[in-house]
Design brief:
single chain; alpha/beta; Rossmann fold; 2 domains; seven-stranded mixed sheet; six-stranded parallel sheet; transcription regulation; DNA-binding transcription factor activity; Peripla_BP_I; LacI/GalR-like_sensor
Length: about 325
């Protein structure tokens, strides 16, 4: 029989027929939340996706990557969110208040996992203890004698602004990752002297922030960044301005990335379990497919002191 099947070029059951029998597409829609050309330059995205896709592959599930808008003027919801076949959706980088993508998935009745969003009864959530992690890195800098801080943040909302943000807007952050990490700084009892918003977690945006913050006469002694790529950009800006890191300014990030090109510096960072987070998201998908709503998961983070933080200059 197998020989005859091989002679006929039979490759196995028709996947469309299998979908009709099961009532499922075998596809998980992964909403990246940003343009793919930016997301794939960020090792954080790649490592989380690696853990997620590997876990889904073990369950014979395919992945449909759905990008976010590349420009704030574009529609916030990709047409694939509205029409593509998917058994479960994953919002990879959280959600904001009244998130239009999550609202669209709810209207379709698609079970959803939200990564680093706000726990809600009708969605599965997987997050990290990033608020505490940011408080820990600020306290580390306080122990080193620092009192004057600046913060470089991820985008506040889908407008993806760039530049210094007035204090009146600090409590108007829509995107939850940015909000929690900024709140973590204040949990340590610090009110930043300046907050600089960036449109995406990329080195060039961190470098622009670094030039803006460190060119001021009243520059801070410590810059706390919401990602390692942003922090590495600040370090590069400091070098070009002739400032010693950490002699003149300390810089800390978040993610725990391995950045050998930043040598000889090793970034002080808050390490998050990137691949493990992807695996846990995959397991949440499996629970939803089984008709079960998993409990919200919050993964721990840990401070990793490096060479980019030191005693405050006198």
């Amino acid at each position: 029989m197998l020989s005859a099947a091989a002679d006929l070029g039979y490759l196995g059951p028709n996947p469309l027929g299998r979908q009709l029998r099961s009532g499922r597409s075998g596809i998980v829609g992964v909403v990246v939340g940003d343009a793919l050309r930016r997301s794939f330059r960020d090792p954080v995205s790649i490592q989380v996706l690696d853990g997620l896709v590997g876990t889904l592959g073990e369950m014979s599930l395919g992945v449909l990557l759905i990008p976010g808008p590349s420009d704030p003027a574009e529609a916030p919801v990709d047409p694939l969110v509205l029409s593509a076949a998917m058994d479960v959706a994953v919002l990879l980088w959280g959600s904001g208040t009244q998130d239009p993508v999550l609202d669209a998935l709810r209207r379709r009745g698609v079970p959803t996992v939200v990564v680093e969003g706000v726990p809600e009864p009708d969605v599965a959530t997987v997050g990290i203890d990033d608020r505490r992690g940011m408080a820990d890195v600020v306290r580390h800098l306080q122990d080193l004698g620092h009192e004057r801080f600046a913060c470089v943040t991820l985008a506040f909302d889908r407008q993806r602004g760039e530049g210094f943000v007035e204090p009146a807007r600090w409590d108007e952050v829509v995107w939850q990752v940015t909000r929690r990490r900024l709140d973590g700084v204040r949990d340590a009892g610090v009110t930043p002297e300046s907050v600089y918003e960036t449109p995406a977690s990329l080195v060039e945006h961190g470098k622009a922030a670094g030039f803006a913050i460190l060119s001021r006469e009243d520059r801070p002694t410590a810059v706390v960044c919401q990602s390692d790529l942003l922090a590495s950009g600040v370090v590069l800006a400091a070098r070009e301005l002739g400032l010693a890191v950490p002699g003149d300014v300390s810089v800390a990030g978040f993610d725990g990335l391995d950045l050998p090109w930043l040598a000889p510096d090793v970034l002080t960072s808050v390490v998050q379990p990137l691949a493990e987070k992807g695996v846990v998201v995959g397991r949440a998908v499996a629970s939803l497919l089984a008709g079960q709503m998993p409990e919200p998961t919050v993964l721990p983070v840990a401070l990793r002191p490096g060479t980019t933080t030191g005693p405050a200059p006198r």
